[in-house]
Write the structure tokens for this entry.
Amino acid sequence: MIAGVELINVTKRFGENTIVDSISLSAAAGEFIVLVGASGCGKSTILRMIAGLESVTKGQIMIKGRDVTQVRPDERDIAMVFQNYALYPHMSVAENMSFALTLTRTPKDEIKRRVGEAARILGIEQLLERKPKALSGGQRQRVAMGRAIVREPSVFLFDEPLSNLDAKLRAQMRVELALLHKRLGKTTVYVTHDQVEAMTLADRIVILDRGAIQQIGSPAEVFNRPRNVFVAGFIGSPVMNMLKGYIVEEDNVELPDTGARIKLPVPVRGATGKPVVLGIRPQGLILNEGPDAVLHMQVKVAEYLGTETVLNGTLANSDEAVTSSLNGEHGGLAGKQIGLSIDPAHVHVFDAGTGLNLIH
Amino acid sequence: MSTSATNSNARTAWLFILPAVLIMAAACLYPVVSAVRLGFYDWSMGTPWAQAKWSGWTSFEIVFTDPAMWRSLLTTLKFAAVSVSAEMFLGIALALALEGNIRGMAFFRTLFILPMMVAPIAVGLTWRYLFDAQFGLINAVLAVFGVAAKGWLADETLAFAAIIISDIWQWTPFVFIMVIAGLANVDTSVLEAARIDGARWWTLTTRVKLPMIAHVLAITLVMRLIDAFRVLEVIYVLTFGGPGDSTEVLSLHIYKTAFIGQKLGAASAISVLLLVVVMVLTWLALRMSNPLADSEKDK
């Protein structure tokens, strides 16, 4: 099957700086791909190269099987939604949405039909005569999406489209985006630094760091089987606990500061004595006031969030920071020392040198 | 908020801006009012104001029936229309050509704005020498191409061209600098969106870029129009309105009426007319795109 978008060994350099380093990536037709990473990881540059706004130093970009590496942005069969909406301030909403169609000399009634249809889908029919200045952030966002929809492109590109909205509206637009994708079924490449957007919207997430892909996988895959320390630390909230230790008897990790031994879900063959980073999701640290507690934590701050309480503190007799996420209300634990046991399903072991996950 | 609190806030705001308003009113309105008042008196310079005679509408009647004044107004309108259009066109074209980061552009930008900084009298003198029929550089250059020497400042059409050329030379840089500053503030992602929408250079420029800096263009146009109607020094030095009255713009006509004809009342009456013409043109220009009105709407 022909991929919706395919990047083949794509590299981007600005002078001596390599921003994107030989990336290969393929989005199936109709797939929703989210590029996620910290700022400066190259995710926006990749999107801009797909759009044709940035030249490609090396490699190839294919859209629906056609090599578009040297093709002008408007001839790539894409539409893009920008972070700051990038609406034409001097045009009405209807003119903003129909601008591309007027340039291709689309018949007037066809333009009217498509603009009307997009406006109906997005619920902005009553705004068509307004100028962008007279719209709220959420409305501008809808117009920007409308402008993309009327072009009926093969590929939608989104560059952090929700980051200028307040939290409530962002959550609402996130749902609408998911519904819109379901309805239109178009290949979508979406850039964000927000892991919640990535987890909720993506068919597959591409996690980037310093211009290189760290992992590609479904939200469940990248959460449950992070390939390395970076992915493990990036995906999941609160952030995964990372404790230094070494492997003893293939299936235990000993933490040198506390002397605690933590049983691994699966043994790591031939790795006894190897220095590792033990990763435990905060949800995997369970309150245990009994004598069989594996770890002891000095709680400094307890953050009650309604359905869960996030405990921040350090391991007892150590200054290693740990976070535990407990169901229910546990605000009273602040300032106390507590015992914790560990859910093996939430345990990962990473090579201290390469950062690679040794058990998943 | 209660009405009384709103009122007291408004009062405080007024108190803050009152000094500025008073100074502006005194500095701007007083001369205008004086000029209008002077139009109703018959007064010569060097005589005490107490001896000035009330003449009612006489000065205005004389002025409005004087063909020389109407010729001068027409000359001014022609001068302003041709020079300001040329300056706007060239200034915008240069700004579009030189925007962005091209190597060495800072140097060229500085070079382009130099004429604007030269004192008008010096500009007039410079161009007078350049246009000189015998020793001028322009005729010398034309001679190289086998064109016979022209009496630039002695021929009515050529003299009019000469004052326009000198004005374009001096004021195109102003348009250039305003437009390039405007273009620098255009949101690049809007231009990128337009590229994705399929806009090529011409469409991008005429349907996106220039409309986005319409406010800057309107203000620039207004400022240039106002200045073009007030132009005096360069023409004073270059042609002194001649040959005949072919280059006698309104401000020069006012000057001659006041200080050569010693008819201050009539000169004031023409000044009032000039003010009205400039106000009407400014109003028309601001109707196209008024930044002040738009910023009001934003609130």
